Amino acid sequence: MKALVFATSADAKAVAAQIDTQMGYPRPGVDVGGGVHVPPTASVTQRYADVMASGDKSQYAVLCDEKLAPVLAAVKGAVKSVAVPDPVEVAMDDTWTVGAAAAVAVKGDAP
Amino acid sequence: MKPCAAAIFGNICGVGGVGPSFDGPFSPATAAPFSPLSLANLALWYRGDLGITLNTTTVAAWADQSGTGDTNKNLVQATGANQPTYNAADAAYSNRPTVQSTGGGAVTMATAGNYATSISDPFTFYLAGQINNGTDTGNMIGDTTNTFPALTRVGSKWSMYAGTAYNQAVGHDANIPSVVCSVVNGASSAIYANGLTASGTTDPGVLAYRRLRLFQATGFGKVAEILIYSGAHDTATRTLVTNYLGARYGIAIGA
After folding, report:
1. Which residues does chain B have within 8 Å of residue A63's beta carbon, measured at their own beta carbons?
2. Among A55, B133, B199, B239, which is most buried by a count of CB atoms within 10 Å?
3. d(CA A26, CA A37)
4. Diameter of chain A by CA atoms?
């Protein structure tokens, strides 16, 4: 899978936060079909992707799939404090774990 | 088995007549109209045309339809990239909806918390779906610790596992649309694929679900419907539910 890879958790989280902004997250869900549905508050999609940390915590990655491609340029333009790399192929084996998912505000970034 | 009087006349059959209904098509010659709610002790029920909440094309939530009222039985996934895909009309399942993971351990759905009451041996588990992991073990459905998969794949066959042994099905590949039934009942456990009996009779161990994870660990594939009933279903009841799933999704039973 392709991902944006960073050297620090803070950089990855800053870019992930801007990705969420550009892609419109958090997003409310849309109910389809019949039956009982979960309450709207329980079906909000909070983020595009989790920040993943390599086993030795030397790399932090954010998924970069075809859904992200249309807004990647806007993300790069909006994040001033981090150099957003081009996506590269990453083998996300079992050594990669979810890093802290909470977004962080980085001074100088677009809201 | 608790019969549903309304089903005799082909009408809606649910709890108090208001539950999700069967919407066919069935041939009267092969199976009577049936709703999973017409059987007692339905503990969990997910069906692709009921209770789905989408994030555009992926599934953010899948609500339990069992009528138990336990909101911790609803499956959710709050991260978009980890949500399975929704196939609104899957040609491999009689154009019924399916929920699909195309691979990668991150794509999964899990319940938000522990059930108010755990689902313990004995219970009977039904799935209309398939596992598409190559030849490796793939855990389709299990608990949230990746420790106790109720339904998995070993080689190309359906199996269940609860920490002590496998109970491996025969005669049907897990990577094509299947109707699978697991009777989880200690040493009397058995697993059936498309109505065919398993070869093994080993005890898969003790399963007691307090949460459920769909597409657990390396498991990926499609799910059209999941049913879990408390208690061990007898042959007649298994046949009824298996035929319902086979007819609904165009899967040949006994083949």
Report:
1. 81
2. B133
3. 19
4. 47
Residues of chain A in contact with residue B109, where contact means CB-CB under 8 angstroms, are: none
Q: Which tokens belong to B207?
A: 């399963």
The ipTM, to two decimals, is 0.85
Which token pair is B123?
């219970």
Query: Which token pair is B215?
Result: 């597409």
Is the minimum CB–CB distance between B84 and chain A shorter than 8 Å?
no
Beta carbons of B7 and B19 less than 8 angstroms apart: no
Q: Percentage of residues in chain A with pLDDT exceeding 90?
A: 61
Distances (CA, A) of B64 to B143, B208, B245: 16, 18, 17
Residues near B104 by beta carbon (within 8 Å), at least 6 away in sequence: A1, A92, B220
Asked whether the predicted pLDDT for residue B46 surpasses 70, the reply is yes
Using a CB–CB cut-off of 8 Å, the residues of A that contact B are 1, 23, 25, 27, 29-39, 42-50, 63, 65, 67, 92, 94, 101
**In Å, how far from its chain's centre is CA B12?**
22
